[in-house]
Design brief:
Layout lengths: L2 H13 L14 H4 L4 H15 L16 H12 L4
Helix pairs in contact: 1-3, 1-4
């Protein structure tokens, strides 16, 4: 698990206390593991923007980009590497 994924794991752990973060791997389905829905995605987006000091474009806030830690990390890394 890379640094971005580790930070995301902390965000998930804090935002979804019923989730057993110890069982989440980079490719674990968040939709199933934390019953991630649209409100949950918005909670994660707010935390991502605060933690990583980025602003996600509306086009990137899609369920396909929030299916796993690895998918979310890819979106974040795009912004951190100047590819927004």
């Amino acid at each position: 698990m890379n640094t971005t994924e580790s930070k995301l794991l902390a965000i998930i752990n804090n935002g979804f206390p019923d989730c057993d973060a110890a069982t989440l791997l980079p490719d674990t389905s968040l939709i199933n593991a934390v019953q991630l829905d649209s409100l949950g995605i918005l909670k994660i987006v707010v935390q991502i923007e605060n933690e990583f000091d980025i602003s996600l474009n509306y086009e990137d806030i899609e369920i396909e980009n929030f299916g796993s830690l690895r998918q979310i990390a890819a979106v974040i890394n795009k912004y951190l590497n100047g590819g927004d």
